[in-house]
Amino acid sequence: MAHHSTQVSSDLIWEIAHVGVGDTARRRNYVRGLKFGIIGNQNSYLVKRAQSGGVRFSRDPLNLTNVHSRKNAGFVNDKAVGVVPAKDGGVSLITKKVKHPQRPASHSHTTTLSGKKSTRKTYKTIASNTAKSGYRPDLRASAIARASAIRKSQKEPKDLPESKLRGAKAKKAAAEKEE
Amino acid sequence: MVSAKKHVPIVKKRTKRFHRHQSELSQPILLIIKKMCLDASWRKPKGSLYPSLISVSIIAFAVVLRAKWSCHRYVQYKDEVGGGGRRTSIGILLRSLEASKPPPTSDTTTRTKLIRTLQIGFGSNKKTRHMMPSGHKAFLVNNTRDVELLLMHNKTFAAEISHAVSSRKRIDIIQRAKELGVKVTNPKARVTTEV
């Protein structure tokens, strides 16, 4: 691994090699850090733009904010939350199963929250599934915010207000036209 | 379309153009070799790739110029080696090479003689850097998938449709942006027809 990737720091590899075998939680965390170190800079989800001083977004469905970061990276973390639009104005809540992180085809669990359900109830369900159960309490706010944004986007968009005329001349011309 | 979130007022400290130092002094012989003439709006190319190689090539360029046409002014061009703090002047570097002395490590003594390399948002508040008058930052968009990235960022970013996108796809992008409440900076391009 270390041979192929020059971006991973040697310190990190040293730490991985020296974490106690029995300390699985700590070891797993290091492995996740290593994973992000290796594939964080180059993956199919990543969208980079040089505009606006360099922006990095992620297309990962398990990324709630679309910001490319370690916290939000669903493909790296064993526990991750995704909120995606569902049919008929609803949202689907995706969570990753911790048990088999190596089985990408079957490692996610999807709950669909119907559009007929009130938004408050939807948020309540999302909050209890992500934070209250102790799954990923740090993602509660962004999960709810995303669900809210999706619900809003599924409504009929409002028309933009008509642009106001600027300047006396334009107003005068418009008044004359009406006459 | 959502308006941008609240921000400190955007003040552009400098609205004049930046004139490349001594660009008007291009010598007639240099005009023949076009590559060696610098435009008034020329900027030193920036990038993290091989900074040492670039600086070496610039030094070589300056040495050749100086030897062949004794173009003394060219060697005064500042070179940036690595980070923002370590800045040296080729002129000083060359003079010290000639005198077989090591170049000065600290740039505090040389800074007064140099002209700073310019970056986007020169002098402006960092918080409002890259910001458009509406308070958004532009994000280049090629398709509807790109617009969907801005779902959670419609108060900070506005979509800017890439120039090569066809009018048919532009309509889709604008429609999707409207649904997501994302501002599009160029919604009229290619879409409106002449009346």
Automatic annotation (TrEMBL), chain A:
<feature type="compositionally biased region" description="Basic and acidic residues">
    <location>
        <begin position="153"/>
        <end position="165"/>
    </location>
</feature>
<dbReference type="GO" id="GO:0003735">
    <property type="term" value="F:structural constituent of ribosome"/>
</dbReference>
<feature type="region of interest" description="Disordered">
    <location>
        <begin position="145"/>
        <end position="179"/>
    </location>
</feature>
<feature type="region of interest" description="Disordered">
    <location>
        <begin position="100"/>
        <end position="121"/>
    </location>
</feature>
<protein>
    <submittedName>
        <fullName>Putative 60S ribosomal protein L28e</fullName>
    </submittedName>
</protein>
<keyword id="KW-0689">Ribosomal protein</keyword>
<comment type="similarity">
    <text>Belongs to the eukaryotic ribosomal protein eL28 family.</text>
</comment>
<dbReference type="GO" id="GO:1990904">
    <property type="term" value="C:ribonucleoprotein complex"/>
</dbReference>
<feature type="domain" description="Ribosomal eL28/Mak16">
    <location>
        <begin position="37"/>
        <end position="153"/>
    </location>
</feature>
<dbReference type="InterPro" id="IPR002672">
    <property type="entry name" value="Ribosomal_eL28"/>
</dbReference>
<dbReference type="GO" id="GO:0005840">
    <property type="term" value="C:ribosome"/>
</dbReference>
<dbReference type="Pfam" id="PF01778">
    <property type="entry name" value="Ribosomal_L28e"/>
</dbReference>
<dbReference type="GO" id="GO:0006412">
    <property type="term" value="P:translation"/>
</dbReference>
<keyword id="KW-0687">Ribonucleoprotein</keyword>
<feature type="compositionally biased region" description="Polar residues">
    <location>
        <begin position="105"/>
        <end position="116"/>
    </location>
</feature>
<dbReference type="InterPro" id="IPR029004">
    <property type="entry name" value="Ribosomal_eL28/Mak16"/>
</dbReference>
UniProtKB/TrEMBL annotation, chain B:
<keyword id="KW-0687">Ribonucleoprotein</keyword>
<dbReference type="Pfam" id="PF01655">
    <property type="entry name" value="Ribosomal_L32e"/>
</dbReference>
<dbReference type="InterPro" id="IPR036351">
    <property type="entry name" value="Ribosomal_eL32_sf"/>
</dbReference>
<comment type="similarity">
    <text>Belongs to the eukaryotic ribosomal protein eL32 family.</text>
</comment>
<dbReference type="GO" id="GO:0006412">
    <property type="term" value="P:translation"/>
</dbReference>
<protein>
    <submittedName>
        <fullName>60S ribosomal protein L32</fullName>
    </submittedName>
</protein>
<dbReference type="InterPro" id="IPR001515">
    <property type="entry name" value="Ribosomal_eL32"/>
</dbReference>
<dbReference type="GO" id="GO:0022625">
    <property type="term" value="C:cytosolic large ribosomal subunit"/>
</dbReference>
<dbReference type="GO" id="GO:0003735">
    <property type="term" value="F:structural constituent of ribosome"/>
</dbReference>
<keyword id="KW-0689">Ribosomal protein</keyword>
